[in-house]
Protein backbone atom coordinates (compact mmCIF):
# COMPACT_ATOMS: atom_id res chain seq x y z
CA UNK A 1 0.00 0.00 0.00
CA UNK A 2 1.06 3.58 -0.54
CA UNK A 3 0.96 5.84 2.46
CA UNK A 4 -0.88 9.10 2.26
CA UNK A 5 0.40 12.20 0.47
CA UNK A 6 0.01 14.02 3.76
CA UNK A 7 2.57 11.76 5.44
CA UNK A 8 4.88 11.83 2.43
CA UNK A 9 5.09 15.63 2.71
CA UNK A 10 6.03 15.76 6.41
CA UNK A 11 9.43 17.44 6.59
CA UNK A 12 10.48 15.96 9.91
CA UNK A 13 12.85 13.19 8.86
CA UNK A 14 12.19 10.81 11.75
CA UNK A 15 8.48 10.72 10.93
CA UNK A 16 9.22 10.07 7.27
CA UNK A 17 11.54 7.25 8.26
CA UNK A 18 8.95 5.73 10.52
CA UNK A 19 6.28 5.35 7.88
CA UNK A 20 8.41 4.64 4.85
CA UNK A 21 8.76 1.05 5.98
CA UNK A 22 5.08 0.49 5.27
CA UNK A 23 4.47 2.87 2.41
CA UNK A 24 7.00 1.73 -0.15
CA UNK A 25 6.49 -2.00 -0.37
CA UNK A 26 4.28 -1.95 -3.43
CA UNK A 27 5.78 1.07 -5.19
CA UNK A 28 7.79 -1.05 -7.59
CA UNK A 29 10.62 0.42 -9.63
CA UNK A 30 13.42 -1.23 -11.58
CA UNK A 31 15.91 -1.49 -8.69
CA UNK A 32 15.11 -5.04 -7.55
CA UNK A 33 18.32 -6.65 -8.78
CA UNK A 34 20.73 -3.77 -8.51
CA UNK A 35 23.63 -4.17 -6.15
CA UNK A 36 22.92 -2.24 -3.00
CA UNK A 37 25.51 0.45 -2.44
CA UNK A 38 25.96 0.97 1.27
CA UNK A 39 27.98 4.04 2.19
CA UNK A 40 29.25 5.33 5.48
CA UNK A 41 26.80 7.65 7.25
CA UNK A 42 27.88 11.29 7.11
CA UNK A 43 29.20 12.67 10.37
CA UNK A 44 26.90 15.65 9.88
CA UNK A 45 23.80 13.51 10.28
CA UNK A 46 22.11 14.10 13.62
CA UNK A 47 20.82 10.55 13.82
CA UNK A 48 22.24 7.39 12.30
CA UNK A 49 19.84 5.86 9.82
CA UNK A 50 17.42 8.70 10.47
CA UNK A 51 16.49 7.59 13.98
CA UNK A 52 19.41 6.46 16.15
CA UNK A 53 21.37 9.04 18.21
CA UNK A 54 25.14 8.92 17.99
CA UNK A 55 25.50 8.66 21.75
CA UNK A 56 23.46 6.92 24.41
CA UNK A 57 21.18 8.71 26.86
CA UNK A 58 22.15 6.62 29.89
CA UNK A 59 24.44 3.83 31.08
CA UNK A 60 21.72 1.79 32.79
CA UNK A 61 21.52 -1.96 32.28
CA UNK A 62 18.58 -4.33 32.02
CA UNK A 63 17.87 -6.85 34.77
CA UNK A 64 16.87 -9.97 32.83
CA UNK A 65 15.56 -11.60 35.99
CA UNK A 66 12.89 -8.92 36.12
CA UNK A 67 10.22 -9.67 33.51
CA UNK A 68 7.71 -7.39 35.19
CA UNK A 69 5.20 -5.70 32.90
CA UNK A 70 3.91 -2.42 34.29
CA UNK A 71 1.31 -0.29 32.52
CA UNK A 72 1.07 3.30 33.71
CA UNK A 73 -0.02 6.73 32.50
CA UNK A 74 1.99 8.53 29.81
CA UNK A 75 2.11 12.25 29.14
CA UNK A 76 2.32 12.63 25.34
CA UNK A 77 -0.91 13.60 23.60
CA UNK A 78 -2.53 10.67 21.82
CA UNK A 79 -0.63 8.11 23.88
CA UNK A 80 -2.24 8.00 27.33
CA UNK A 81 -0.55 4.79 28.52
CA UNK A 82 2.88 3.22 28.49
CA UNK A 83 4.33 -0.20 29.19
CA UNK A 84 7.98 -0.78 29.98
CA UNK A 85 9.65 -4.16 30.00
CA UNK A 86 13.19 -5.43 29.35
CA UNK A 87 14.31 -1.83 28.93
CA UNK A 88 12.04 -0.92 26.02
CA UNK A 89 9.12 1.47 26.31
CA UNK A 90 5.83 0.81 24.52
CA UNK A 91 3.37 3.71 24.33
CA UNK A 92 -0.26 2.97 23.49
CA UNK A 93 -3.02 4.91 21.83
CA UNK A 94 -6.56 4.92 23.19
CA UNK A 95 -8.33 1.70 22.29
CA UNK A 96 -5.26 -0.54 22.50
CA UNK A 97 -6.17 -3.06 25.23
CA UNK A 98 -3.79 -3.92 28.06
CA UNK A 99 -4.21 -7.59 27.17
CA UNK A 100 -2.69 -7.01 23.75
CA UNK A 101 0.42 -5.18 24.95
CA UNK A 102 0.96 -7.77 27.67
CA UNK A 103 0.96 -10.44 24.96
CA UNK A 104 3.46 -8.33 23.01
CA UNK A 105 5.62 -8.20 26.14
CA UNK A 106 5.49 -11.98 26.53
CA UNK A 107 6.54 -12.40 22.91
CA UNK A 108 9.45 -10.02 23.52
CA UNK A 109 10.51 -11.92 26.65
CA UNK A 110 10.41 -15.24 24.81
CA UNK A 111 12.85 -13.93 22.23
CA UNK A 112 15.37 -13.71 25.10
CA UNK A 113 14.69 -16.79 27.26
CA UNK A 114 16.71 -17.16 30.43
CA UNK A 115 18.26 -20.44 29.35
CA UNK A 116 21.68 -21.28 30.75
CA UNK A 117 22.62 -22.79 27.38
CA UNK A 118 22.33 -19.37 25.77
CA UNK A 119 24.73 -16.44 25.96
CA UNK A 120 22.97 -14.46 28.69
CA UNK A 121 25.70 -11.84 28.74
CA UNK A 122 25.05 -11.06 25.08
CA UNK A 123 21.33 -10.91 25.78
CA UNK A 124 21.91 -8.32 28.46
CA UNK A 125 24.21 -6.27 26.24
CA UNK A 126 21.67 -6.18 23.40
CA UNK A 127 18.71 -5.28 25.61
CA UNK A 128 20.71 -2.83 27.72
CA UNK A 129 21.80 -1.01 24.58
CA UNK A 130 18.15 -0.65 23.60
CA UNK A 131 17.48 0.81 27.05
CA UNK A 132 20.48 3.14 26.87
CA UNK A 133 19.36 4.52 23.51
CA UNK A 134 15.77 4.90 24.78
CA UNK A 135 14.09 2.43 22.49
CA UNK A 136 10.39 3.30 22.21
CA UNK A 137 7.72 1.46 20.20
CA UNK A 138 4.43 3.28 19.51
CA UNK A 139 1.42 0.93 19.48
CA UNK A 140 -1.31 2.32 17.25
CA UNK A 141 -4.98 1.44 17.09
CA UNK A 142 -5.73 0.63 13.48
CA UNK A 143 -3.84 1.94 10.49
CA UNK A 144 -1.64 5.01 10.55
CA UNK A 145 -3.26 6.51 7.42
CA UNK A 146 -6.41 7.36 9.37
CA UNK A 147 -4.58 9.37 12.01
CA UNK A 148 -4.55 13.17 11.98
CA UNK A 149 -2.34 16.16 12.70
CA UNK A 150 -2.32 15.60 16.47
CA UNK A 151 -0.81 12.17 15.94
CA UNK A 152 1.91 13.58 13.66
CA UNK A 153 2.81 16.19 16.26
CA UNK A 154 2.96 13.55 18.99
CA UNK A 155 5.23 11.37 16.88
CA UNK A 156 7.55 14.30 16.30
CA UNK A 157 7.72 14.90 20.05
CA UNK A 158 8.49 11.24 20.72
CA UNK A 159 11.08 11.06 17.96
CA UNK A 160 12.96 13.98 19.49
CA UNK A 161 13.32 12.20 22.83
CA UNK A 162 13.52 8.50 21.94
CA UNK A 163 14.83 6.07 19.34
CA UNK A 164 11.89 5.08 17.12
CA UNK A 165 12.46 2.98 14.01
CA UNK A 166 8.96 1.54 13.55
CA UNK A 167 5.48 1.05 14.98
CA UNK A 168 3.17 -1.81 15.94
CA UNK A 169 -0.40 -1.54 14.66
CA UNK A 170 -3.18 -3.19 16.66
CA UNK A 171 -5.96 -4.57 14.44
CA UNK A 172 -4.63 -2.99 11.26
CA UNK A 173 -6.95 -5.07 9.08
CA UNK A 174 -4.28 -7.07 7.25
CA UNK A 175 -5.00 -10.36 8.98
CA UNK A 176 -1.35 -10.81 9.96
CA UNK A 177 -1.29 -9.55 13.53
CA UNK A 178 1.24 -12.15 14.63
CA UNK A 179 3.89 -11.02 12.16
CA UNK A 180 2.99 -7.38 12.73
CA UNK A 181 4.29 -7.92 16.26
CA UNK A 182 7.25 -10.20 15.48
CA UNK A 183 8.49 -8.06 12.58
CA UNK A 184 8.54 -4.81 14.46
CA UNK A 185 10.07 -6.22 17.62
CA UNK A 186 12.85 -7.60 15.41
CA UNK A 187 13.31 -4.24 13.72
CA UNK A 188 14.19 -2.67 17.07
CA UNK A 189 16.42 -5.55 18.15
CA UNK A 190 18.38 -5.56 14.90
CA UNK A 191 18.57 -1.81 14.20
CA UNK A 192 19.61 -0.90 17.74
CA UNK A 193 20.79 -3.91 19.73
CA UNK A 194 22.53 -5.91 17.01
CA UNK A 195 23.71 -2.94 14.97
CA UNK A 196 25.57 -1.48 17.96
CA UNK A 197 26.73 -4.68 19.69
CA UNK A 198 27.59 -6.87 16.72
CA UNK A 199 28.60 -4.36 14.03
CA UNK A 200 30.88 -6.75 12.15
CA UNK A 201 27.89 -8.99 11.54
CA UNK A 202 24.81 -6.75 11.77
CA UNK A 203 25.71 -3.11 11.07
CA UNK A 204 23.33 -1.39 8.64
CA UNK A 205 25.87 1.36 7.84
CA UNK A 206 28.89 -0.81 7.03
CA UNK A 207 29.18 -2.09 3.46
CA UNK A 208 31.40 -4.90 4.73
CA UNK A 209 29.10 -6.15 7.49
CA UNK A 210 27.98 -9.73 7.05
CA UNK A 211 24.30 -8.85 6.88
CA UNK A 212 24.94 -6.32 4.11
CA UNK A 213 26.98 -8.77 2.05
CA UNK A 214 24.38 -11.50 2.46
CA UNK A 215 21.63 -9.03 1.56
CA UNK A 216 23.44 -8.06 -1.63
CA UNK A 217 23.68 -11.71 -2.56
CA UNK A 218 19.97 -12.22 -1.87
CA UNK A 219 19.14 -9.25 -4.12
CA UNK A 220 21.40 -10.59 -6.88
CA UNK A 221 19.77 -14.02 -6.69
CA UNK A 222 16.27 -12.55 -6.83
CA UNK A 223 15.44 -13.72 -3.31
CA UNK A 224 15.00 -10.23 -1.85
CA UNK A 225 13.24 -7.62 -3.97
CA UNK A 226 14.09 -4.08 -2.87
CA UNK A 227 12.25 -2.33 -5.70
CA UNK A 228 9.52 -1.26 -3.27
CA UNK A 229 12.01 1.04 -1.57
CA UNK A 230 13.30 2.73 -4.71
CA UNK A 231 11.73 6.11 -4.00
CA UNK A 232 13.72 6.34 -0.76
CA UNK A 233 17.12 6.50 -2.41
CA UNK A 234 17.43 10.26 -2.00
CA UNK A 235 17.38 9.77 1.78
CA UNK A 236 20.48 7.60 1.56
CA UNK A 237 21.06 6.98 5.26
CA UNK A 238 17.39 6.11 5.74
CA UNK A 239 17.33 3.87 2.69
CA UNK A 240 20.37 1.95 3.90
CA UNK A 241 18.87 1.32 7.29
CA UNK A 242 15.45 0.34 6.02
CA UNK A 243 16.56 -2.23 3.44
CA UNK A 244 18.94 -3.89 5.92
CA UNK A 245 16.33 -3.74 8.70
CA UNK A 246 13.71 -5.38 6.48
CA UNK A 247 16.15 -8.01 5.25
CA UNK A 248 17.16 -8.84 8.82
CA UNK A 249 13.52 -9.45 9.71
CA UNK A 250 12.99 -11.74 6.71
CA UNK A 251 16.18 -13.63 7.49
CA UNK A 252 15.58 -14.22 11.20
CA UNK A 253 11.85 -14.97 10.96
CA UNK A 254 12.49 -17.48 8.16
CA UNK A 255 15.23 -19.15 10.18
CA UNK A 256 12.66 -19.38 12.98
CA UNK A 257 10.20 -21.04 10.56
CA UNK A 258 7.51 -18.40 11.13
CA UNK A 259 6.76 -17.41 7.54
CA UNK A 260 4.72 -20.47 6.57
CA UNK A 261 2.35 -20.40 9.55
CA UNK A 262 2.05 -16.62 9.96
CA UNK A 263 3.47 -14.76 6.98
CA UNK A 264 2.10 -13.94 3.56
CA UNK A 265 3.67 -16.49 1.24
CA UNK A 266 2.52 -14.48 -1.78
CA UNK A 267 4.66 -11.53 -0.65
CA UNK A 268 6.85 -10.53 -3.61
CA UNK A 269 9.56 -8.95 -1.50
CA UNK A 270 10.88 -12.22 -0.07
CA UNK A 271 11.09 -15.56 -1.84
CA UNK A 272 12.09 -18.07 0.83
CA UNK A 273 9.34 -19.77 2.82
CA UNK A 274 11.05 -21.80 5.53
CA UNK A 275 14.28 -22.67 7.32
CA UNK A 276 15.09 -25.63 5.09
CA UNK A 277 14.81 -23.54 1.94
CA UNK A 278 16.84 -20.77 3.58
CA UNK A 279 19.72 -23.21 4.04
CA UNK A 280 19.38 -24.36 0.43
CA UNK A 281 18.95 -20.99 -1.27
CA UNK A 282 20.91 -18.62 0.97
CA UNK A 283 23.31 -20.65 3.14
CA UNK A 284 25.33 -17.57 4.11
CA UNK A 285 22.17 -16.04 5.56
CA UNK A 286 21.33 -19.21 7.41
CA UNK A 287 24.85 -19.34 8.85
CA UNK A 288 24.76 -15.68 9.88
CA UNK A 289 21.71 -16.29 12.07
CA UNK A 290 23.00 -19.67 13.23
CA UNK A 291 26.33 -18.29 14.46
CA UNK A 292 25.07 -15.07 16.05
CA UNK A 293 21.37 -14.62 16.84
CA UNK A 294 20.81 -18.31 17.56
CA UNK A 295 23.41 -18.13 20.33
CA UNK A 296 21.33 -15.78 22.47
CA UNK A 297 17.82 -15.48 20.99
CA UNK A 298 15.01 -17.91 20.21
CA UNK A 299 11.71 -17.81 18.40
CA UNK A 300 8.69 -17.05 20.59
CA UNK A 301 6.56 -20.08 21.36
CA UNK A 302 3.77 -21.08 19.00
CA UNK A 303 1.42 -20.91 21.97
CA UNK A 304 2.11 -17.21 22.50
CA UNK A 305 2.10 -16.42 18.77
CA UNK A 306 -1.26 -18.14 18.29
CA UNK A 307 -2.82 -15.69 20.75
CA UNK A 308 -2.53 -12.88 18.21
CA UNK A 309 -4.86 -14.61 15.74
CA UNK A 310 -7.86 -13.36 17.66
CA UNK A 311 -6.94 -9.78 16.66
CA UNK A 312 -6.94 -10.49 12.90
Summarize the structure.
The chain has 312 residues and is of the alpha/beta class.
Task: Summarize the topology.
Elements (H helix, E strand, L loop, with lengths): L4 H4 L4 H11 L23 E2 L3 E2 L16 E7 L2 E7 L2 E5 L5 H13 L9 H13 L3 E6 L7 H13 L6 E3 L6 H21 L1 H4 L7 H11 L15 H20 L3 H4 L12 H7 L1 H9 L10 H5 L6
Parallel strand pairs: 5-6, 6-7
Antiparallel strand pairs: 1-2, 3-4, 4-5
Task: Sum up the structure in keywords.
two-stranded antiparallel ribbon; 312 residues; 7 strands; five-stranded mixed sheet; 43% helix; alpha/beta
- Give a short account of the largest sheet: 5 strands, mixed
Number of structurally distinct domains: 1
Q: Structural class of the secondary elements?
A: alpha/beta
Strand order of the largest sheet: 3-4-5-6-7
Overall description:
The protein has 312 residues and is an alpha/beta fold. The protein has one domain. It has a five-stranded mixed sheet with strand order 3-4-5-6-7. The chain has a two-stranded antiparallel ribbon with strand order 1-2. Helix 4 crosses helix 6 and helix 6 packs across helix 9. It is globular, with a radius of gyration of 18 Å. The N terminus is likely disordered.
Amino acid sequence: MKFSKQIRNISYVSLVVLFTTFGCKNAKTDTSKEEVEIEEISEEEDKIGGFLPKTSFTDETVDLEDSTVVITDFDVKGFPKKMETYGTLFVMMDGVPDEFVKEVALTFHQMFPQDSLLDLKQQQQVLSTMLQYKSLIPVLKGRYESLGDDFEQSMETLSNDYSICDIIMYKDGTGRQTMEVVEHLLHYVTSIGLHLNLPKEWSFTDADSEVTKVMNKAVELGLYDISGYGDMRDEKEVYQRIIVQEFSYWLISTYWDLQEPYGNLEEEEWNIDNKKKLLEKLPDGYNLVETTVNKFMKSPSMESLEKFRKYN
